[in-house]
Structure formats: structure tokens, C-alpha cells
Amino acid sequence: MITAVSSRAEVIKWMEDFVGEKITELLKSVEDSWQPADLLPDSTLDNFLGEIKELRERAKELSYDLLAVLVGDTITEEALPTYESWLMTIDGLPSDPNGPWMRWNRAWTAEENRHGDILNRYLFLSGRINMREMEASTQYLIADGFDLMTDNDPYRSFVYTSFQETATNISHRRVAQIAKREGDNVLAKLCGHVAADEARHAKAYKAFVSKIFEADANEMMLAFEDMMRKKIVMPAHYMRELGVDMGKTFGHFTDAAQRIGVYTSADYTDILEGLIKEWKIETLTGLNEAGERARDYVVALPARLKRVAERMKVPQLEYKFRWIAD
Ligand SMILES: [Fe+2]
Ligand SMILES: [Fe+2]
């Protein structure tokens, strides 16, 4: 039984059955999953070259910023080894390889692994990308790692993943919409598939946090506040290109994403508002004084962020990415 003084490790252990249920409910079996090969030309077929030709014709019409955002998204997905090893460092996750937590980590990683694969393969076939430059950025990002400021804490970590999976759902979905507008239905479809995966993952991580709120509301509230005070950084915040300082390319990538409306500061606030609603923060009770202050801070934050966003201008400076071939 969970009591008010339960440690984080006890809460995480107590959630095991719940996590097991979420694996069945929100992750898909291999048999039921799409694979990159379902959506891209099949090299064993005689019409392979014809299909590539069509793919390249469509890709010619894609705008510069969209391509840049797509490459940045791909590099972010390709840094999956960083995310998996980070998950494994969260304090208190039971290490039993057959237990729900480790099964979750592996099955989540296995689903995510398809994202980098499909985006990378599309970009390779598109004829518009300097693949070596993109690959170097990926190698840099994995070697550089990240600093999410979650301190190996499960509560902070699942606030982070709840936020981040929602953000990736939004950005892949928007890229799909723009690709469709620019006439590339295949790219639109594959980004739509990736976005749908991210939506399931977001749902699961949000459910993990809801469950923690049931058992340890005060500590969960303090963890949520702490992450929002520090601000949620993107996992690729160290992104760079060859010859560019660490993190510099990332700034240009997020500028491009804002310019074309793939991910903006308004989205950041919308996600926060969604989490406040999902976790019923406004009506949260049973908190101590620090917990109540944390709740009030978080509840007031969206309005503050909106005021700041009103004063911010969308960055117009065009940047020539080494990734784009033309
Ligand atoms: Fe992903
Ligand atoms: Fe994801």
C-alpha cells in the first residue's frame, strides 16, 4: 500500500502493473506495426527506379525551410541511443529485464527506432540532402548528448517525456500538413505515421504522471513546477553541423520551425495548458504549503508565457544549412 511518505522508488515499483497495462494498451506489437518499407519504394521490384524518379520529382517542390526542419527532426529521431540510455539512468526503475518498466523501455525504443529509419531513407532518396553533412550532425548529437535537467528523477523525467512526446507529435503532424500542401503526399503520409506513434507515447507518459499524482501528489507537483521553472529544453538542443559550435545549428533549426509554424512558442504554452488540464492541477488538493505554491505557479504560467510570446518576433534571418544540397 502506498502512503503519504512513500519514496519515489516505492511509487515506481507500485506502478508496475499499471505500466504493464499501458504497454498492451498504448504500444503496438511488431505484427501490428507499420514499417518504413511499407511507405517507401521497394528495391526488389522492377519499378523501383521509376518510383524513385517520382519521389524525387515531388521532393523538388519542397520549400527550403521545410527541408531544413525535416532534417533537424530526422537528426533528433536518430539520436535515439541517447534517449534510451537516458531512460536507463532514471533512479528507482526496477532493473528486472522481464519487468514492466524494462519492457516498456525496450518496446518504446523499438517503436521509436522506425522514425529515424523512415525519415533518413526518405531524405536519402529525395536527392535534396547532403547526406554526409546530415550524418555528421547526427554523430555529433549522439556524442554531445543533452542536458534535460531532470536529475535522474523519475517524476521530473516523466514530466519531460509527457511534454516532449506531445511536442514531437505536433511537429511531425505539421510537417505532414505542409508536405501535403507542397504536393508530396508520400512524405505527408510517412510523417503522419510517425506523428501517430508520438501521440500514443505522449498518452502513456501522461498516464504515468497521473498515476504518480494519485500516490504522491505533493512531490509530483514540486517536480512539475521545477521542470517548468527550468523550461523544457528540446532533446536536440546541442545540435550542430561540421565546423559550427555546439548548439548553434539548433537555434537556426528552431528559427526555421517557427517561421513555417511547425513548432512555435504558442505550441509550448498550449502543451503546458494541456498538461495542467490532463493532470487536473487546478483542483489538486492534499498539498502542503510548498506544493500549493508550486501548483499556483504552474497554473499562472500559461498566461505569463502568452504575454511574453506576444512581444516575441518570428525570426526572419535565413540560414544556409550545410545539410541542404541546393
Ligand atoms: Fe519519434
Ligand atoms: Fe517520441
Can you describe what's shown?
Keywords: Fatty acid biosynthesis, Fatty acid metabolism, Iron, Lipid biosynthesis, Lipid metabolism, Metal-binding, Oxidoreductase. One of its GO terms (biological process) is fatty acid biosynthetic process. Belongs to the fatty acid desaturase type 2 family. Homodimer. Its cofactor is Fe(2+); Fe cation. This protein has 326 residues and is mostly helical. It has one domain (20-33, 48-310): Ribonucleotide Reductase, subunit A, CATH 1.10.620.20. The protein has helices spanning 8-14, 16-26, 36-39, 48-60, 64-78, 80-87, 100-126, 131-144, 154-181, 185-230, 248-259, 265-278, 289-311. Helix 5 crosses helix 11. 37% of the residues are buried. The structure holds fe (ii) ion (2 copies).
Assembly status: single chain
Summarize the main sheet: none
User: What count of structural domains?
Assistant: 1
**Annotated CATH topology:** Ribonucleotide Reductase, subunit A
Low-confidence stretches: none
Give the name of the CATH superfamily. Ribonucleotide Reductase, subunit A
Q: In CATH terms, what is the architecture?
A: Orthogonal Bundle
User: Mind telling me the CATH class?
Assistant: Mainly Alpha
Shape: globular
Alpha plus pi helix count: 13
Q: How do the helices and strands follow one another from N- to C-terminus?
A: HHHHHHHHHHHHH
Overall average pLDDT: 96
Structural category is mainly alpha
